[in-house]
Every structure is written in structure tokens, then in C-alpha cells.
TrEMBL record:
InterPro entries: KH_dom-like_a/b, OHR, OsmC/Ohr_fam, OsmC/Ohrsf. One of its GO terms (biological process) is response to oxidative stress. Belongs to the OsmC/Ohr family. It comes from the Bacteria. This is Ohr family peroxiredoxin.
Length: 137
């Protein structure tokens, strides 16, 4: 049986060139579509928002795994690059997820990265749907 711990709700008007806001007002952003790789000042994209959420969630998964494995993940930084991709079947997302953990060896960083990818809710939601490339630095 599942128990809902929290629900975040957001509404967007105008799609990729509109405005998105959470029901509690904690996030309120103007959206834009980059032109020639440049985004208008003061605007963001759905990919930026997805990357931000995924990075935060994955960071918590890294902390959980570090605690379970008794590894020092202090100062660990998760970077997520969410790319909008156009293929033969239309548009989709592709993710590159990187972990930098200053107190860990390269082998330990890879171990934590792979274990966190198994428990992170975003990773679970994207598994089999979105290609996710894991990288440790």
C-alpha cells in the first residue's frame, strides 16, 4: 500500500512560451523556447525545470545511499542535463546525470551513483522511458 507524502501542483498557461506556477506560489516562471541556442533573459524551459527537480531528488538519493553504505558524500554535487531531442518519432527527452563526490574515490563515486539511480524516484519514473547516461567526475 502506498501513502502519499506530498503532492506538488503546477499550472501552465501558454505552453513553452507561457507562464507556469505552482498552486502555493513557491515557483512562478516565465517560459521560453531558445532561438539559435539562446534563451530570452528572465525565462526558463521545461527542461531546466525537469533537470532541477531531478538533480535535487537524486541528491537526496545520494545522501541516502551514502548513509546506508557509510560513505562520506559531504559536498556531493549532482548535475543533470535534460535535453529536448527530435527524432523520427517526434520529440523526447534525454538525460545526462553526473555525480561529483569530493570525499569518495572514483570507484566509490560510481558505486554510489549506480545505487542512487536504483532508489531515486525520478530515476524510477524515467527508467525504460528516457535514456539516462550516468557519469561520475
Amino acid at each position: 500500500m502506498s501513502t502519499v507524502l506530498f503532492t506538488g501542483t503546477a499550472t501552465c498557461v501558454g505552453g513553452r512560451n507561457g507562464h507556469s506556477q505552482t498552486s502555493d506560489g513557491s515557483v512562478s516562471v516565465d517560459l521560453g523556447m531558445p532561438k539559435n541556442g539562446v534563451l530570452d533573459a528572465g525565462k526558463t524551459t521545461p527542461e531546466h525545470l525537469f533537470a532541477t527537480g531531478y538533480a535535487a531528488c537524486f541528491g537526496s538519493a545520494v545522501e541516502l545511499v551514502g548513509h546506508q553504505k557509510k560513505l562520506d558524500v559531504t559536498g556531493a554535487a549532482v548535475t543533470v542535463a535534460a535535453s529536448l531531442v527530435k527524432g523520427d518519432d517526434g520529440f523526447s527527452l534525454a538525460i545526462k546525470l553526473s555525480l561529483k563526490a569530493p570525499a569518495l574515490s572514483a570507484e566509490q563515486t560510481k558505486e554510489v551513483l549506480e545505487a542512487a539511480h536504483q532508489v531515486c524516484p525520478y530515476s524510477k519514473a524515467t527508467r525504460g522511458n528516457i535514456p539516462v547516461e550516468l557519469a561520475s567526475s
